[in-house]
Amino acid sequence: MEIEDAIKKAKKNDQIAFNFLLDTFWNDVYAFQLKRTQNENDAEDITIQTFSKAFDKINTYNEDYKFKTWLITISKNIHIDLVRKQKKTIKNTSKDSEDNYFDIVDDSPTPEDRIITEQNLAKLLRDIKKLKPHYQKVINLRYFQELSYKEISEELKEPINNVKVKLLRAKKLLAAIITKT
C-alpha cells in the first residue's frame, strides 16, 4: 500500500490504512520524541497521543505537505503542551468532554487476534508478562475482562483514541513476542 492511498483510505475510516500508517511512521515519531524527552515511557506516551490525535483529525491533513512532517508537528506540539502543563502544576481538566472521535474499529479478527485466541493460555500469560505494565493492563481489560473501549477509557482515565492506539500497539508487540518463541 502506498502512503497516499493509505491516507485516502484512512480518511474513509479504513482500519487497515490506520494500521499501515501506524506501522510505517511509529518508529520515526517515537525516535523524535525519545531525543526530545530522553525517557522511553514519555516518548511512547506522546507517540500514542500523536497517532490518536492524527487519526482523530486525519481529515484536516493537507496533501501539500509530507505526512511524516505533519505527524512530527503534532508530536512536537503535544510535547510542548505537556511541558507547559508540568510547569504550571495546576490541575486543569483537559478536553475530556470532547466526544468528537472517529470509530477506527474493525470487528473482524486481525491476525494478532487470531494468534491470541489460538495460543495456550499459560504460554499466552507468560508472553503478556513480557510487555510493559501499561500494555499488560490494556490487554487484560480488553481481552480478559472484555471491557469496551469506552469502559477501558474510563478505567484508565485516558481518551478513547489513546486506548485504541495503545491496544493496537500492545497487540503488535505481543504478536512479535509470540512469533519469536
Integer-rounded radius of gyration: 17 Å
Number of helices: 9
Write out the CATH superfamily name of the largest domain: RNA polymerase sigma factor, region 2, helix turn helix motif
CATH architecture of the largest domain: Orthogonal Bundle
Per DSSP E runs of 2 or more residues, the count of β-strands stands at 0
Structural class: mainly alpha
Fraction of helical residues: over 70%
End-to-end gap: 29 Å
Strand content: under 5%
What is the CATH C-level name of the largest domain? Mainly Alpha
- For this structure, the CATH topology of the largest domain is Rna Polymerase Sigma Factor, Chain: A
Rounded mean pLDDT score: 82
Estimate nothing, just give the exact number of structural domains. Answer: 2
Largest sheet: none
Low-confidence stretches: 90-97
Coarse shape:
globular
The ordered string of helix (H) and strand (E) elements is HHHHHHHHH
Structure explained in plain terms:
Residues 125-174 form the RNA polymerase sigma factor 70 region 4 type domain. With 181 residues, this protein is mainly alpha-helical. The protein has two domains: 3-88, Rna Polymerase Sigma Factor, Chain: A (Orthogonal Bundle); 111-180, Winged helix-like DNA-binding domain superfamily/Winged helix DNA-binding domain (Arc Repressor Mutant, subunit A). It is built from nine helices and no strands. The protein has helices at 3-11, 15-37, 40-56, 67-88, 111-118, 121-128, 133-144, 149-156, 160-180. Helix 1 packs across helix 2, helix 3 (40-56) packs across helix 4 (67-88) and helix 3 (40-56) packs across helix 9 (160-180). It is globular, with a radius of gyration of 17 Å. Residues 90-97 have low confidence and may be disordered.
